[in-house]
Amino acid sequence: MAGNSFGVVFRVTTFGESHGPALGCVVDGCPAEIALDGETIAAELRRRRPGMGGPAATARSERDEPELLSGVFEGKTLGTPIAIIIRNKDPRPGDYAVLKDLYRPGHADWTWEAKYGLRDHRGGGRASGRETAGRVAAGAVAKAFLASPACRNDLTGGGPGGVSIRAWVSQAAGIDAPQPGEADFDLEEAERNPLRVPGRAAAERIGQRLAELAEAGDSAGGIVSCRIGGLPPGLGEPVFGKLGALLGQAVLSIGACKGVEFGEGFAAAVSTGSAHNDSPAFPPFWDGAPGTGAFKTNHSGGTLGGISTGMDVVFRAAFKPPASIPRGQITVNRAGEPVEAAVRGRHDLCIAPRAAPVVEAMSALVVADLLLLRRRARPRH
Amino acid sequence: MAGNSFGVVFRVTTFGESHGPALGCVVDGCPAEIALDGETIAAELRRRRPGMGGPAATARSERDEPELLSGVFEGKTLGTPIAIIIRNKDPRPGDYAVLKDLYRPGHADWTWEAKYGLRDHRGGGRASGRETAGRVAAGAVAKAFLASPACRNDLTGGGPGGVSIRAWVSQAAGIDAPQPGEADFDLEEAERNPLRVPGRAAAERIGQRLAELAEAGDSAGGIVSCRIGGLPPGLGEPVFGKLGALLGQAVLSIGACKGVEFGEGFAAAVSTGSAHNDSPAFPPFWDGAPGTGAFKTNHSGGTLGGISTGMDVVFRAAFKPPASIPRGQITVNRAGEPVEAAVRGRHDLCIAPRAAPVVEAMSALVVADLLLLRRRARPRH
Amino acid sequence: MAGNSFGVVFRVTTFGESHGPALGCVVDGCPAEIALDGETIAAELRRRRPGMGGPAATARSERDEPELLSGVFEGKTLGTPIAIIIRNKDPRPGDYAVLKDLYRPGHADWTWEAKYGLRDHRGGGRASGRETAGRVAAGAVAKAFLASPACRNDLTGGGPGGVSIRAWVSQAAGIDAPQPGEADFDLEEAERNPLRVPGRAAAERIGQRLAELAEAGDSAGGIVSCRIGGLPPGLGEPVFGKLGALLGQAVLSIGACKGVEFGEGFAAAVSTGSAHNDSPAFPPFWDGAPGTGAFKTNHSGGTLGGISTGMDVVFRAAFKPPASIPRGQITVNRAGEPVEAAVRGRHDLCIAPRAAPVVEAMSALVVADLLLLRRRARPRH
Amino acid sequence: MAGNSFGVVFRVTTFGESHGPALGCVVDGCPAEIALDGETIAAELRRRRPGMGGPAATARSERDEPELLSGVFEGKTLGTPIAIIIRNKDPRPGDYAVLKDLYRPGHADWTWEAKYGLRDHRGGGRASGRETAGRVAAGAVAKAFLASPACRNDLTGGGPGGVSIRAWVSQAAGIDAPQPGEADFDLEEAERNPLRVPGRAAAERIGQRLAELAEAGDSAGGIVSCRIGGLPPGLGEPVFGKLGALLGQAVLSIGACKGVEFGEGFAAAVSTGSAHNDSPAFPPFWDGAPGTGAFKTNHSGGTLGGISTGMDVVFRAAFKPPASIPRGQITVNRAGEPVEAAVRGRHDLCIAPRAAPVVEAMSALVVADLLLLRRRARPRH
Predict the structure, then answer these.
(1) Which domain holds residue C246?
(2) What is the CATH number of the domain that holds D133?
């Protein structure tokens, strides 16, 4: 597949450079008759937009108003492709002129040029984190589909709550946030503080540490955790389309993501079968409703054999520190000469808070596609 | 894409159940005029076959003789699909009759049945690790392509060594093997001992620990590390087809894999930009040959912006302990009643040693596909 | 997509050369719980096998016994890939040694060599009509799916008869067979005579003409007509996946097919809107059952806007005369010298009779895929 | 694949409804460093725009100014997705209010509603011929690629002229235009007269006949012929991706196309092998440059075994008469009642003249994709 599309039947193509006229997406394969409007998409975009993320975020100010160009008529999807564009309104390409002949440390400047022979140097072009705006717009469409009565009734087994997808920052700048099951873990708090940390005290500690790093002209890594609830069993397309494999591709395709683990993840590598195995619960083992406790434990993170168990799907994604830092770094220019790169544009101190909504969006794309594919595995009798 | 195919132009489809008549693969899109014969494929299959893996491995005895059915004529590929089958010669389905109505803990028994409405219970059917024989056969074709003069001259930039892909066990049963850069790290040793551990002393310690677990009727997890050398810069298809994203999907699609990380991986999440950023080296920055030290460091693990840098691509994959253990476990049968599952078939104590060749195979598939796709990004002038 | 796969969710990959060890297919995405056995596939293969086709057919004798390697357990599909192979048992490669350095007129010898740099010259290699055995095996799986209660109940709207696909020879060697609506049109007769002509008298006339051509060392073209009945409205994926577009690709991908037309086809080009337009019938316009006369006429051949109307889908496909003829023809050898090519292998006089089952198979693949895709367009409320 | 995308590595997705905010396309996989600007795209759009087509065309007045949103920087493609939108500036949805509850004869009104449960009734929504604006914009990108030095030097074998794609109206309203080889065949004339007829006298006769039909409130069918020159041998991906099969899908996916034939097409069905076979020419048989007369004849229309021969690829496509006619027709409304549909919007009398540039665009997409795929078949040694 060409590299800018994702999914099989719920299929998304994104486009756009950081400082070109616009970014956006085309969603092909969204079922018809789903309620959708621009505000739904705008609301998701606001969750990742520059300016959010508090002390961790770039100062670039983009309103990120999406424009729905097709696929929706009188408030409902038509079954035709849904095109959404987001104009770039605050480009300051002048900020980037100095980068034209420079290959910044830790950036994609040189690799893109090595691949394509040229690049749009303005703000990283398509290698910019701004590319994810198109993903979040597409994810908003997927979320609208997942929340629709059609999806709930026909595809997820009739559970009342439907599918829920929540991502948060579980670690940043080396400081842990509260973990699920701990007393101070508060997912609503993650929506309130701009760092998306599920605990106010931890958010403050992380904010302080980030302020110190900003002072030092440096940046920080972080970890985003995600929980997908309300899935029916049966999601995933063995063998290469296992649920974890597709979520893995989806999340690792986000710039700066360097690792992903499901359930116990790397800790499972030091465990034993007797400790790690999830056993079915009973009675009742499974009554058709998702999320009703089909297994006694969930060490696997919601999949067995690449197929959802009906338990929560849980995973963690590691993000490296942003490569753009004000602190001077020695690099190379196009002529092969050593030069100092002190990046003075508007950049994030830590990408994790703004990556969380992107992780949600990518998860929504995977789940929407697999729900639509699952139906073909076993037509109704 | 249907779930049993992988790749875009170098495209593989695998098939087969653990105790059905045969497993195999079809490779479509392998260039013509590549030298290939059955022995090349058989040699790779021997590296993963049951019986290898020493104390960690199942006792099932399969010769795994591949049969080349199409796509090769007079020792060279024709450009047409290459079909390879491997007969199942040692099925003892009687061993598995007891599993027919049982959902084993940690296994895919119940999820596959929830998805498809029925399952081949004999040895896990297609959810068995035996499924990977088809992948390894396909990977052998990919490796033959990567080693061909055509690939080296036209696609990898003319480096003398070509692409090398090596996977080994870097941790098992909680015991670390020597790591790259350490004095006792010996990759040749990993080919000699059946645990694929790059160090004889560590291999012995791990073997002892596995023997203890076997005594206790238990199993162990492990970590496979992989290094891909000799890649030219420019591999990877942004944005969803980033090199790390595709390798991530490829590796996470191997049964029992619960996590993957690139370069510093999760450690990057606690690092800072000034420490993590890789800076270009000079002079000469890049002279066209892969692997010539384009960057001073390789914290990123060989990719920037999802595209290969020309440095080694390095990643680690976590494998959970095998779910099949002799120790009795309480589970549920089809009637919803509690039953004890004491799995007495032939199973691996630790999957990592036999997973290593599969990690290599999947890596070879990703690299072959991306090399062929890369060419389209920038035709020659 | 690589060139040897077809379909999106009901996805088929074929492989095999005319004189290699075996031909076959892998069907990925067939729903689970469909009744399937080897005899079902063998029965379809007998309809196209060498020896059938009467005076029109090659004398090559292949039993074409299919072997089911995977995807079926206890007589039902598992939802996993279904691999089927057909061994080549009567290869006489010696017959073809003379062709090694020769480019036969009208054949793919030179184009395949120009593309791939080499070729399997034995009987045309993969460019042989024998390649279609894999398609027919896959089509048999598709037909089994279309005939299943699951498909009828869940996907085709509950019509009692299910989907029917029938292809026949409507013209050969310049002689017309009876056309639908004519008194002597008899589709059962097309199953009885080896020329697949729906009328005994026409079959005899065509047989005589073919005998004369055989005497003259020549061959003949023909036309295959196809009618797909029992389709629900709503099949087809606008805009590039229109029902006619996919059937068109499917049929034009059969070797020797040079044209396809739907409904009135080329005659529509000389018609007017007032004469050609199909108007909805009433009452009742549409009661949910396929094939119940939703339109007063069917000039369009069963599609409007690329989507099935619920009327019969009807099309015709033109096949050129087989290129292999005993009559001497001047051609060129590898050295660029003129040589006479008098092809003395076993070849068909007219490909249409044996192409008819292949047209059915390809139609079944298109319909199965679109039925599974249609469901995603509009989940149930 | 989702229905609104086409191609494998040169991959196009189109979107947009006739009276929505905008139509457009995203081209993913166009190589980098190709010269491209908005005017190149605008020029192609003018060739199909409403207002062209003379007496055959709708009176709808759209300037069709394309806007390039991404993928181009400083006049060159970046290798990233190229998004192009065309705003709908002259929608008069009021014209269509009467159609809201009406299913017009010969139109997609009912089939789209049967598939999706709802439709955008304004001007046919996405089933409108206006949808092809996105295809033409994408085709303009493909043409720019085909004309680039990179394509000529690396992919088409270095022929000086490059690939040329020309489509014209060879028949309309039952009146033949001059055919290739006839004295009065003048392809430049086809660019001058709005009916795209390659002969002034025929254009006038056709224009008169269309005026009579307009008077009678009726419409006419037509045939578009196309010739692709300058192709190297080796294009086409057997077996399902044969050059003719992909062109067939491409052309049959254009609304109102009811048939396609290659070379002699349906006439081949009444020919014999001795008459139809194309024999290689010599000397020189093939010197590496496309279009240098590799075969003595071209009955096959430029392909053998689904792969280009290096001769011109020639095909013809039949278009039905436009369904929208002023003459009153009895149809059915949503309530199942008979109503008269007298369509008074702005419509084409004959679609062939405006379909010709769309046939060119689709051909360009196929050729661009296959040229990029061909390279993988046989890397350079």
Answers:
(1) 5-377
(2) 3.60.150.10
Least confident range of A282-291, C82-91, C300-309, C369-378: A282-291
What is the C-alpha end-to-end distance of chain B, expressed in Å?
Answer: 34
Tokens of D123: 């001007």
A311: its two tokens:
């338990």
Which positions ≥6 away from C267 have C-beta within 8 Å? none
Tokens of A35: 């309620």
Q: Does D28 touch chain A (CB under 8 A)?
A: yes
What pLDDT sits at residue B52? 45
Helices D352-377 and B352-377, packing angle to 10 deg: 130
Cβ contacts below 8 Å, chain B against chain C, sum to: 161
Are D31 and B372 in contact (CB < 8 Å)?
A: no
Greatest Cα pair distance, chain B, in angstroms, is 71
ipTM over 0.85? The verdict is yes
Contact A307, A233 (CB under 8 A): yes
Return the residue matching tokens 């093997």: B177
The conformation of residue A8, written as its DSSP 8-state character, comes to S
Longest dimension (CA), chain C: 71
pLDDT at D376: 57
CA distance A212 to A205: 11
Q: Taking a C-beta distance cutoff of 8 angstroms, is the pair A313, A366 a contact?
A: no
DSSP A266-298: GGGGGSBHHHH---B--SSS--S-TTS--BS--
Residues of B in contact with D238 (CB under 8 A): 80
Instruction: Evaluate whether D296 touches D279 at the Cβ level (below 8 Å).
Output: yes
8 Å CB contact between A109 and A121: yes
**CA D125, CA B346: separation in Å to the nearest integer?**
61
Helices (H) and strands (E) in chain D — how many of each? 9, 18
Give the pLDDT band (50/70/90) at residue B156.
confident
Residue of B8, B79, B379 with shortest CB distance to D155: B379
Higher pLDDT, C379 or D238: D238
Please name the residue that has the structure tokens 């499974």.
A286
What are the chain D neighbours of A76 within 8 Å (beta carbons)?
A: 118
pLDDT tens-place string over residues A29-49: 999 999 999 999 999 999 887
| Overall pTM > 0.90 | yes
- Other beta carbons within 10 Å of C105: 27
Beta pairing, strands A164-172 & A222-229:
antiparallel
Confidence tier at D200 by pLDDT (50, 70, 90): very high
B38 to chain A, minimum CA–CA distance in Å?
25
Q: Is residue D314 within 8 Å of residue C122, measured between CB atoms? A: no
How many domains does chain C divide into? 1
Nearest residue in chain B measured CA to CA from C15: B81
Q: Shortest CA distance to D239 belongs to which of C248, C249, C114?
A: C249
Q: Chain centroid to CA D178: how far?
A: 21
Residue of chain C with shortest Cα separation from A152: C381
pLDDT in the model for residue B154: 76
Residue labelled with tokens 């036969």: C104
| Model confidence pLDDT, tens digit, residues A46-95 | 988 754 445 566 555 667 899 999 999 999 999 999 999 999 986 565 66
Closest residue in A to D10 (Cα) is A2
The alpha carbon dihedral of C10, B142, B171, B307 has a sign of negative
Q: What is the DSSP letter of C82?
A: E
Rounded to 5°, angle at Cα A207 from A202 and A208:
100
Mutating which of B4, B8, B240 best tests the A interface, going by the most A Cβ atoms within 10 A?
Answer: B240
| Interface size, chain A vs chain B, as Cβ–Cβ contacts under 8 Å | 385
Chain A stretch 67-96, residues whose beta carbon is closer than 8 A to a beta carbon of chain B: none
CB contact under 8 A, D111 and C308: yes
Q: What angle do CA B9, B15, B18 make, to 5 degrees?
A: 150
Beta bridge partners of D157: none
